[in-house]
Amino acid sequence: MSPPQFYLRLALYLTPLLPAARGGQARAAPTELECPLPGGARSATPTVCGQFTACVWTDGDGCRLTDRVGYRVQRAVSRRQLLLTKSSDVTLFGEDVQRLMVTVTEHDRQRVRIVFRDADRQRFEVPLRLNLPPPRHRRQRAEYRVHLPSAPAELGPDVSGPPFSLSVQHGRQTALRLLPQLSYSDQFIETTLLLAGEHLYGMGENNHDRFRHDLDAAATWPIFARGRPPGDGHEALYGVHPFLLAIENASGKSLGVLFLNSNAMEYKVFRLNGSAAVTFRTTGGVLDLCLFFGRSPLEVLRQYHLTIGLPELPSYWALGFQLSRFGYRSVDEVRRTVARTRAAGIPLDVQYVDVDYMDGRRDFTVGKDKFGDLSRLVADLRKLDIHASLLYDPSLATDFGRYPPLKRGVARDVFVRWWNDSLIPEDQCAGCRHYVAGYLWTRNKTLLVDFFQEAATHWWTDEMRRFSKSAGGPEGFWIDMNEPTNFGTNLEKPFNWPSSLPAWSLKCPVNRLDDPPYPTAHVRDTSNKSGRLSDRTICMTEQTHQRCIPRASSIASAQTL
Ligand SMILES: *[C@@H]1O[C@H](CO)[C@@H](O)[C@H](O)[C@H]1NC(C)=O
Ligand SMILES: *[C@@H]1O[C@H](CO)[C@@H](O)[C@H](O)[C@H]1NC(C)=O
Ligand SMILES: *[C@@H]1O[C@H](CO)[C@@H](O)[C@H](O)[C@H]1NC(C)=O
Ligand SMILES: *[C@@H]1O[C@H](CO)[C@@H](O)[C@H](O)[C@H]1NC(C)=O
Ligand SMILES: CC(=O)N[C@H]1CO[C@H](CO)[C@@H](O)[C@@H]1O
User: Fold this and answer.
1) How many A from CA of 89 to the centre of ligand 1?
2) Which end of the chain is less crowded, N or C, counting CB atoms within 10 A of the terminal residue's CB?
């Protein structure tokens, strides 16, 4: 571009922006987007709304984000990388990231990744390597086209470039538009995407009544791993699947969006100006969007699975008929159940035994009285071509001295610990050192295995091997409660706490990590008994071996992997 052309374009960029660029004196106007209030939309009043400079009260629509939320393009670092600066000083929860680097990597015909990072300091990123090919050659054709705001190579420090937003074209259609109202702070990131298709699927784990999202319900759903079986509300269930599929038109042309983030998050699926829209909010990490384009939903799912890694091919028998329950009282009861099932002509390939077989529900033990001949049961089932599978919990009873697996685990230091020693509670159990003590099925407090450590994998494998031999070599193992789940966190006591003992529970300390300024819809759900992020799971101020960056509020993210 010749210099005159450059200045002409520059002038065009700046003309509409002058009021905002002149020290932010312009009156903030509301946008169509709701303001994310920690107490939820129902808590909106002019006073609550007024606490956030990024929000503005409207008489018709309640508390809305203002048009001053977002970033401007400062300069193009390369053809596919832009440096952004925050547009104004308005904020939701403070500690906004001032300069963002957005990097677009076009991996192949169907896959593109768009990552927004803090340009000035490192933040936690999900320690998961995606299977993506190196960037495609520029001449290689792609099914999509990413449109970034065209940016000058350099602007003076006092002038700002165009507001940042982007769109992605799929064939002739704009499949996705990322709106300019991007919020990015230490413990809160929000972005809204407009989508061409009305048929949206995926995201969770939540209790959806039907597969297709109901845009008109405009519901907000939390995502956070913890031990919660399906109920009837909008609660966060066991797993984390931040993947959205949008079918764009009647031909089946589709777009997939992986929102790669493992912090506590939520999403809202709704209609904006008649288009399908999704808002993602998360409490930390980075904004990392991996997009998949295909001519059909199947093609998109194939790309997605190639990217995150294909599942293990399970044993053929594992696809068969399986019987499981909590509460078998003895080996005899299991035998009777199997016999009854076979007599009724019901096929049976796998028979489970839950933690009932253990001695006091402790991993790697067998209750001598009722399950003494567990190994014979396993062998007899094998003769019938039925595969035995045993349950385990990733938590060990703290009965030091009388429970060798625990002793060996402590020797190898494999348990989840407090973030720092000043967080160790005053009533810490004897022998529990710097570990986090919780409670599950045993009559003792428990220590949680930190599977991020290689030492933990070795120790666990070794215990499984020792135990498996003595249990007759069952074919299957089921690790339960590994979200991880903890009973009664922050409550007076867990529901199954021994009545003979004084009340106790794992109580998380109060701090910015355990109680982020925007704790997501998870804590507002009626299933949330303690009203905190750690409800039914462990605290956020804990440490796994993969010691992350503390300020990123992402220690909890280890939970979801
Ligand atoms: C779907 O969109 C593509 C353009 O992206 C168009 O060629 C095709 O005809 C559309 N199909 C239907 C059934 O609308
Ligand atoms: C929605 O429509 C209004 C009026 O046409 C327009 O000003 C606004 O920019 C639209 N919003 C989005 C997100 O496209
Ligand atoms: C321990 O961690 C908590 C939570 O992050 C923090 O508030 C506290 O200052 C830390 N204490 C020390 C001694 O580092
Ligand atoms: C652990 O539980 C057993 C009963 O199963 C009990 O006898 C023992 O005192 C408990 N130990 C601790 C440290 O709580
Ligand atoms: C069922 C229940 O106790 N729900 C609580 C979840 O947390 C909120 C506070 O954030 C409480 O108001 C609810 O009562």
Assistant:
1) 43
2) N
